[in-house]
């Protein structure tokens, strides 16, 4: 309703330049500042695209006045911490409203002062009489008592005799018992003070002192003759002694070889601790948002490009109520469902926009071929994109490396051009007004054979392992052949084969022909269902038990490098008949029997399930062994394997988190107590094995360092005013590490991790 108002995000550096720092230069009472138009234009010339006023450059240049009104917005009413008023009329109205408010406050203060001046005269109601009665008044004449005795009785002897008291009543006074009303009053309240003091005791002791004296001992080796040595070595006594002690000596020597008994473990733990408390913090490096695609949306997934530095992608979805989350697939949405690709070195321009048929719940770059991106939709569809044609465009956004000569030593050093330099060099090649390339999906799953509920998680299977329709794991000799696995709240796990290049090209050409041929309005549904419904899963694992039909979030599958005999699983498992496996085709491949097909699943009830999907080749059904652990009280939102240990993983859900170890059957190896708020996201650190980050519903990020504390987070920092929805770390270099954090307001925060959280101490 205010087209002349533009939300403005001012960083700390810009606030310092224009003297508009919150709580210092501007406050909630005095929340505006007039900035000269010339100063803003000079800042645009100096900092170019890195200037916070760059998105409104055209508005500022067309502004007729000499000063622009910048207003502090502490409650983010318009979406940012400041906003500018881009018209003189709105500026005058704003200033007049402030003057009217000040005049109103002054009038109210004058009325209050006048009311205080008009006071009623004091009227006595008799209280002064009560004060006079209770006051102490001394009398003028005091009563005197005089006790005397006859002088002759002084020093006279006294004779005592026995006498019956009953004979003379005047000789004694009887004190009869009576009830005192003072002690019969029931006390309702009583103030009692108790002071505890330690008992002190004085004691002394004295050691017995003896007269000191000097003493010394001189020893010398005992020399034996050759005959005596031979006799001693051949004696039965020596043989019995050596026979009795040789076993203990061997054990002692083995222990000395295995372990150094003089090694101080406590000293080794503290060798990397610095003097003083190190600074642990997140520094905001960049933030991304988009009015067209991210307004009133929540970010559901964030992923970094595996090979191209600085490229990050995110997906967004609607902000449903808790009751609407069950029926997301049946909800008709009138917005564009996309995946947005940004670059850290060109934050104002989108690099790619991946079009999707429905909102994306999760997506993942292929580790072996990052040009393939697979995503899961809210209606259960699985979609595939191929961005190989745009790979050069993404690589062109990297920073330029120049040689800079040090004036002090004269040696050339390599330096990365900062984002300010990049803005000056390539900022005018691609203008922000240019539309980003729109990439259509090259494959989409068929509706009857895909998930019936939103896809909760998606993982790529390693390129050297292949799953076949018989329920076995085989070696994939074709490096170009890729597979992935998905899971959903419909309690099904699907394995997918990536379509061939010919199938993908046919799909795209048919899609383009259909879009040209169809001229239907956007509200009418697409009647041609043979177009997108061409991709079918390779294997489908379905649970038929109603208790198991929960939301399943897949953690990882132990396909690569997890070669171990089946006998190593010593956990007592029970046979479950609630799972069946269906296939769609058949192949004759060589099975890899020693590859583990175990996987971990988290469901909506907060249970962690350790199971396997492998079945016998000669049968049509499978009875996998599974083990359930009930620890979390709400839906598990994170289930992630440690990047340092293949058998350690982290589960987060509700008000708890837990660290699990494969093979340990009696529960987690570490679990937290119930927190005050809810945990909403989490990720392991990529550089320190004992550190992980957890997002909360109050916008905080908890930093857990298990070397310092295990009962509470070692540090925490507020990132947003809304719920943290996703966390994704990235290692740009050995000295620079980033943490991408998204919130429920559609804002992606790129945080730079401090060196304390990046450099692991020894033996961590």
TrEMBL record:
Claim: Ligase is one of the keywords in the record: no
Coiled-coil ranges (or none): 84-118
The species this protein was found in: Calcarius ornatus (Chestnut-collared longspur)
Keyword list, A-Z: Coiled coil, Cytoplasm, Repeat, WD repeat
Annotated InterPro entries: Dynein_IC, WD40/YVTN_repeat-like_dom_sf, WD40_repeat_dom_sf, WD40_rpt
Any single GO CC term annotated in Swiss-Prot or TrEMBL for this entry: inner dynein arm
Keyword Coiled coil carried by entry: yes
GO BP field: cilium movement involved in cell motility; inner dynein arm assembly
Major location (coarse): cytoplasm
Protein name (record): WDR63 protein
Gene Ontology molecular functions: dynein heavy chain binding; dynein light chain binding
Gene encoding the protein: Wdr63
Intracellular or extracellular location(s): Cytoplasm
């Amino acid at each position: 309703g205010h087209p002349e108002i533009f939300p403005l995000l001012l960083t700390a550096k810009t606030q310092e330049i224009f003297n508009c720092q919150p709580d210092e230069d501007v406050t909630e009472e005095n929340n505006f500042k007039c900035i000269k138009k010339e100063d803003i234009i000079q800042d645009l010339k100096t900092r170019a695209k890195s200037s916070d006023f760059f998105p409104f450059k055209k508005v500022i240049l067309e502004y007729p006045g000499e000063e622009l009104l910048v207003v502090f917005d502490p409650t983010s009413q318009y979406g940012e911490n400041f906003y500018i008023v881009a018209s003189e009329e709105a500026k005058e109205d704003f200033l007049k409203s402030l003057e009217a408010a000040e005049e109103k406050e002054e009038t109210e203060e004058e009325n209050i002062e006048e009311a205080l001046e008009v006071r009623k005269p004091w009227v006595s109601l008799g209280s002064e009489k009560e004060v006079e009665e209770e006051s102490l008044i001394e009398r003028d004449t005091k009563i005197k008592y005089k006790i005397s005795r006859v002088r002759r009785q002084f020093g006279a002897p006294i004779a005592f005799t026995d006498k019956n008291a009953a004979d003379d009543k005047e000789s004694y006074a009887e004190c009869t018992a009576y009830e005192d009303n003072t002690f019969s009053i029931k006390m309702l309240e009583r103030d009692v003070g108790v002071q505890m003091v330690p008992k002190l005791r004085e004691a002394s002791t004295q050691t017995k002192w003896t007269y000191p004296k000097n003493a010394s001992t001189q020893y010398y080796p005992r020399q034996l003759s050759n005959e005596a040595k031979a006799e001693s070595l051949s004696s039965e006594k020596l043989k019995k002694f050596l026979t009795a002690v040789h076993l203990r000596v061997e054990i002692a020597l083995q222990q000395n070889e295995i372990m150094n008994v003089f090694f101080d473990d406590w000293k080794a733990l503290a060798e990397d601790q610095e003097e003083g408390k190190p600074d642990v913090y997140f520094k905001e490096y960049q933030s991304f948002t988009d009015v067209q695609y991210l307004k009133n949306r929540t970010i559901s997934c964030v992923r970094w490009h595996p090979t191209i530095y600085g490229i990050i992608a995110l997906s967004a979805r609607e902000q449903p109520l808790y009751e609407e989350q069950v029926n997301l697939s049946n909800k008709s949405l009138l917005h564009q469902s996309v995946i947005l690709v940004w670059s850290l070195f060109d934050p104002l321009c989108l690099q790619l926009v991946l079009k999707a048929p429905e909102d994306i719940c999760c997506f993942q770059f292929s580790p072996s071929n990052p040009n393939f991106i697979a995503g899961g939709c809210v209606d259960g569809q699985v979609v595939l994109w191929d961005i190989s044609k745009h790979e050069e465009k993404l690589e062109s956004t990297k920073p330029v490396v120049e040689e800079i000569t040090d004036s002090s030593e004269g040696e050339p050093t390599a330096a990365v051009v900062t984002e300010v330099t990049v803005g000056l060099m390539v900022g005018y090649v691609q203008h922000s007004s240019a539309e980003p390339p729109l990439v259509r999906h090259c494959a989409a799953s068929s509706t009857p054979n895909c998930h019936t509920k939103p896809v909760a998680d998606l993982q790529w299977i390693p390129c050297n392992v292949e799953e076949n329709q018989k329920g076995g794991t085989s070696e994939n000799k074709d490096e170009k052949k890729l597979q992935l696995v998905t899971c959903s709240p419909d309690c099904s796990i699907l394995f997918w084969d990536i379509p061939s290049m010919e199938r993908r090209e046919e799909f795209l050409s048919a899609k383009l022909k259909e879009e040209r041929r169809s001229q239907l309005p956007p509200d009418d549904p697409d009647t041609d269902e043979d177009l997108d419904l061409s991709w079918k899963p390779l294997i489908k694992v379905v649970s038929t038990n109603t208790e198991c039909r929960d939301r399943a979030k897949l953690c990882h599958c132990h396909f690569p490098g997890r070669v171990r005999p089946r006998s190593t699983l010593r956990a007592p498992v029970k046979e479950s008949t609630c799972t069946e496996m269906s296939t769609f085709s058949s192949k004759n491949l060589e099975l890899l029997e020693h590859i583990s097909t175990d996987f971990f699943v988290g469901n909506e009830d907060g249970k962690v399930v350790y199971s396997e999907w492998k079945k016998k080749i000669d049968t049509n059904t499978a009875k996998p062994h599974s083990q359930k652990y009930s620890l979390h009280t709400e839906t598990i939102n994170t289930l992630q394997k440690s990047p340092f240990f293949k058998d350690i993983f982290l589960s987060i859900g509700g008000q708890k988190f837990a660290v699990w170890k494969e093979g340990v059957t009696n529960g987690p190896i570490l679990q937290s107590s119930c927190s005050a708020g809810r945990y909403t996201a989490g990720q392991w650190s990529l550089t320190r094995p004992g550190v992980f980050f957890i997002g909360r519903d109050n916008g905080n990020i908890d930093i857990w360092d298990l070397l310092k504390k295990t009962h509470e987070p070692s540090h925490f920092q507020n990132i947003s005013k809304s719920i943290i929805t996703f966390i994704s770390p990235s290692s740009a270099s050995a000295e620079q590490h980033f943490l991408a954090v998204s919130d429920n307001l559609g804002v992606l925060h790129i945080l730079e991790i401090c060196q304390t959280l990046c450099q692991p101490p020894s033996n961590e």
